[in-house]
Specification:
- The protein is mostly helical and 650 residues long.
- Helix content is 42%, strand content 2%.
- It has three domains: 263 residues, M75 peptidase, HXXE motif (A middle domain of Talin 1, Up-down Bundle), CATH 1.20.1420; 165 residues, Cytochrome Bc1 Complex, Chain D, domain 2 (Orthogonal Bundle); 152 residues, Orthogonal Bundle (Cytochrome Bc1 Complex, Chain D, domain 2).
- It is built from 21 helices and four strands.
- Strands 1-2 form a two-stranded antiparallel ribbon. It has a two-stranded antiparallel sheet with strand order 3-4.
- The longest helix is centred in the N-terminal third of the chain and has 28 residues.
- The chain starts with 40 loop residues before the first helix and ends in a 35-residue tail after the last helix.
Length: 650
């Protein structure tokens, strides 16, 4: 289940936005002047962006005046909501070209600590979401007025940065369509879930504004599209009008049918935007991305590229590497005593978990530190382990093999032992294009294991089928539960669509961690917080203590018990925990909890529907025969190893 407001504990993103280098204006070109009509559609879009930034300036100025003059609360709130809607009209290009500034303008109202900062200074949040806390749910006090005005000054400073950045832009048609489709995805995954409107009532009107910008953007290409494919042009125009009509009739976030919006309006819209791009002959970018640059829908079976999450994105896993990795995964020869394999704790029949709160430790000496997470879709996240201490599956495999309580082995020892098996040498030669006589290398072992793990992507659950146009795939209870998940329970503000983990859309460039206040034992009257420091233990940062990576909810019906410590044995218990506001809501002292402590007030029916929806996220296609029938053999001098059991002894 999910926290209801996410915050990244990782360092502030320094990465470049999509396509940034390809669309910087050279110094020899003059900038587009607002108000001057230009000939190309891309220039028209840029001109509109300048105008929208100016409108945002005006909206913020009006909000500043309302606060400075102590106007009635109703007027101040109206001015605030108007400023947020004005931001949404600029969001498409602001997020695309200036993501760091966009984060300052509209990032979560929670502090951050940069992991390289030895002084552990908390960077206080700023921007529109901080301003929201002064207007909703309760208004600020007169004594807080200077703080509100200070935040408005921060917003105006960030706006100035956006203006300066806009003067340097010269986007191509490819950039425009890329940004447009990503904005549709942003609305689908973050906007309608209330990710950036946790307290104010503006999620639906803001979605209308954001998609209105996409509509205005594509209007610049409408004459060309009409000339090439008039039916598609008419269909796209009709879809835009239908989207706005639906949003206009559903202004209240509490009653908004998010599932219907996604399946009947937003998903077809993203597909038609891509069709229009193809019809116009505008190429998609070729760069490797988590969400493919040519993905027409978030819910396509192959929308995501697991290679993008790897350290080396230029070499894709080959079938021989995957097959070799599968053999190694089930082979106890990698462990220190030759009796334990990766599959000992990650069993394919249990969605690659083991059904234990904490797995049995090496040689049966107690238990390991944390619950065994599923490996299904583990390739589609930016960090590994509950504490996110490594980034790549290759490093995760190496760490597990070396861990004295898990496999208590050594990659170097394993590579030497595997080199003594002619069958394994042949398999490694086929996988890595080497000679069969060549010794097995440690890097090859890691690469093969990671290749197998990247093959465990499963995105064809009943929910996915429903989103792809199979209405019978999702029952009535699960449909109601989807709306609870996306709406009242706010699960989707941390377990983001469509991966249902903490990897933030639409760029999927970072995976978030949360402080939930998980108790040591399941109880509605817990006595103690679980002592595991989580991310804070890995980084040494106090503010990250008890933070854990937001895991995937795909196949969650099969992966009990839950949480990093396996404290909760049922989904119903987990839902009750969130319904009460996490650990702090249950009375524990959790000063850095990122999960809001207020209660959700879910009804018994809503909880049952939510469980039904979570069951609809199950997809274990093709996993029934994951375990190899036999393992590669060793020569006579190592005959004792030939009796080893695939999957290990315990």
């Amino acid at each position: 289940m999910s926290a209801r407001k996410s915050i990244a504990f990782s360092s502030v993103l320094l990465g470049l936005s999509f396509g940034w280098l390809g669309c910087q204006r050279s110094s020899s070109l003059s900038s587009v002047v607002p108000g001057v009509t230009t000939s190309s559609p891309a220039e028209q879009v840029l001109q509109r962006y300048h105008q929208d930034l100016t409108h945002l300036d005006s909206a913020v100025a009006l909000l500043h005046r309302a606060v400075a003059q102590s106007q009635p609360l109703r007027q101040q709130r109206q001015a605030f909501l108007a400023a947020r809607r004005a931001w949404k009209r600029t969001e498409m290009l602001a997020e695309y070209y200036s993501p760091s500034t966009a984060k300052l303008l509209n990032g979560p109202a929670l502090g951050e600590v940069e992991e390289f900062d030895q002084q552990q200074r908390i960077h206080e949040p700023e921007g529109l979401q901080v301003l929201e806390t002064y207007f909703y749910p309760e208004p600020y006090t007169p004594a807080q007025q200077p703080k509100v005005l200070e935040q408005l000054a921060f917003v105006r400073s960030s706006l100035l940065s956006l203006h300066h950045a806009a003067e340097t832009l010269s986007p191509t048609d490819s950039h425009i369509f890329d940004a447009a489709r990503l904005e549709v995805f942003r609305v689908m995954t973050l906007g309608v879930s209330g990710f950036d409107t946790p307290a104010s009532p503006g999620a639906v009107p803001e979605a209308a504004e954001a998609l209105g910008t996409v509509q205005a953007t594509l209007a610049s290409y409408q004459p060309q599209l009409m000339a090439r494919q008039p039916r598609l042009a008419a269909r796209l125009d009709s879809t835009f009008r239908a989207v706005q009509t639906f949003l206009g009739h559903s202004r209240e976030a509490a009653t908004f049918n998010r599932l219907q919006f996604l399946v009947a309006y937003a998903n077809p819209l993203s597909q038609q935007v891509w069709q229009a791009q193809q019809a116009l002959g505008i190429p998609a970018f070729k760069e490797v991305r988590a969400l493919r640059a040519d993905a027409a829908s978030l819910f396509e079976a192959d929308a995501f590229d697991a290679t993008a999450f790897a350290a080396n994105t230029t070499e894709r896993p080959t079938p021989p590497q995957v097959l070799l990795g599968q053999q190694l995964f089930f082979d106890p020869v990698l462990s220190g005593n030759g009796s334990r394999s990766c599959a000992s704790c990650h069993q394919s029949t249990r969605a690659f978990t083991d059904g234990q709160a904490k797995s049995l430790a090496f040689a049966g000496r107690g238990v390991v530190a944390r619950n065994a997470p599923t490996l299904l879709n583990a390739a589609l996240q930016r960090t590994q382990f509950h504490d996110g201490r490594v980034s790549f599956l290759e490093d995760q495999a190496a760490a597990v093999i070396a861990n004295p309580t898990e496999m208590h082995g050594s990659l170097a020892t394993a590579a030497r032992l595997l080199s003594r098996s002619p069958a394994y040498r042949t398999a490694f030669a086929a996988a890595f294009a080497t000679e069969p006589s060549a010794a097995v290398q440690q890097e090859q072992v890691k690469t093969a294991l990671a290749a197998y793990l990247r093959s465990l992507v499963r995105l064809n659950s009943p929910f996915d089928q429903y989103m792809r146009g199979e209405p019978e795939a999702l029952g009535a209870a699960a449909q109601r539960g989807a709306n609870v998940f996306l709406g009242k329970a706010k699960c989707a503000t941390c377990h983001f669509l469509p991966l249902f983990n903490g990897t933030v859309p639409p760029g999927f460039e970072r995976t978030e961690a949360e402080v939930l206040g998980t108790p040591a034992q399941a109880s509605l009257h817990p006595r103690a917080l679980d002592p595991d420091l989580g991310r804070g233990g890995a980084t040494g940062i106090r503010w990250q203590q008890h933070a854990f990576k937001t895991p995937t909810l795909r196949n969650v019906a099969l992966t009990a018990p839950y949480m990093h410590n396996g404290a909760y044995r049922t989904l119903e218990q987990v839902i009750d925990f969130y319904d009460q506001g996490g650990g702090a809501g249950l009375g524990l002292a959790v000063p850095n909890q990122t999960l809001p402590t207020d209660k959700l007030h879910l009804t018994a029916q809503e909880k049952r529907d939510l469980v039904a929806f979570l069951h609809a996220l199950t997809d274990t296609t093709g996993l029934g025969h994951s375990e190899p029938r036999r393992l590669p053999q060793f020569p006579a001098e190592l005959a004792r190893l030939n009796a080893r059991k695939a999957g290990g002894q315990y």
